[in-house]
Amino acid sequence: MRRAPESIWNFISPIVEGLHYNFVGVSLGQAESGLTLRVYIDHEDGITVDDCGRVSNVVSAGLDVEELLSGEYCLEVSSPGLERPLFNAGQFSEQIGRTVKARLLVPQDGRRNFTGVLEQVEGDEITLAIDGESYNLAIRDIDNANLVAQFGRG
Questions:
Q1: For residue 7, how many other CB atoms are within 10 A of its CB?
Q2: Could you give the CA distance from residue 23 to residue 26 in angstroms, rounded to a whole number?
Q3: Which CATH architecture has domain 89-147?
Q4: I want to staple 80 with a disulfide (CB 3.0 to 4.6 A). Which of 1, 84, 124, 143 is the partner?
Q5: What is the reported pLDDT for 154?
Q6: H helices then E strands: how many in the chain?
Q7: Model pTM?
Q8: What is the DSSP annotation of 106-123?
Q9: What pLDDT does residue 66 have?
Q10: Contact, 83 vs 100, CB < 8 A?
């Protein structure tokens, strides 16, 4: 899944926030069955299936009227989950010290995939620590990024 175009973000964000949920982000992907639009929402009290259904109904109706997507699409609304997607500098800043997985649009230093501890966020750039080395990645060059769930050993 890739970050959806800005026009879709700008359309969906006020709808979600108008329903009193936190808009985390929206991604777009192509599957065998067609286009999938995934909207991530959050709330201080958590997210229920009913919350997802409510947002889905309103967003779907709006998208159908505005015709921002051509052809058929599948709309999914969910909480960000344990492996929360990260879309912007503010979201990355909240996760300093956590393990992050990022896939770049174009390779950097001969690789596209980076998994490491998020050391810092400065402007539009993040720094990941991987095997004792630091890698600076521009957020605009990231195709998708998310937290990596860490479970204690016991």
A1: 10
A2: 8
A3: Roll (2.30)
A4: 84
A5: 52
A6: 3, 9
A7: 0.88
A8: EEETTEEEEEEEEEEEET
A9: 86
A10: no
Q: How many Cβ atoms are within 10 Å of 118's Cβ, its own excluded? A: 22
Per DSSP bridges, beta strands 34-42 and 73-78 are parallel
In CATH terms, 2-78 corresponds, of 3.30.300.70, 3.60.10.10, 3.30.310.50, 3.40.640.10, to 3.30.300.70
Residue 69 pLDDT: 84
Structure tokens that stand for 15 in this block: 């709808």
Q: How far apart are CA 30 and CA 99, in angstroms?
A: 27
Size of the chain in residues: 154
Residue ranges matching CATH 3.30.300.70 in the chain: 2-78
What's the rounded Cα separation, in Å, for the pair 100 and 83? 9
E strand intervals along the chain = 2-3, 22-31, 34-42, 73-78, 99-108, 111-122, 125-130, 133-138, 142-147
Q: Which residues contact 121 (CB under 8 A, 6 or more apart)?
A: 89, 92, 93, 96, 127
Give me the residues of the chain with pLDDT under 50, please. Answer: none
pLDDT for 5: 86
- Are 20 and 55 within 8 A, CB to CB? no
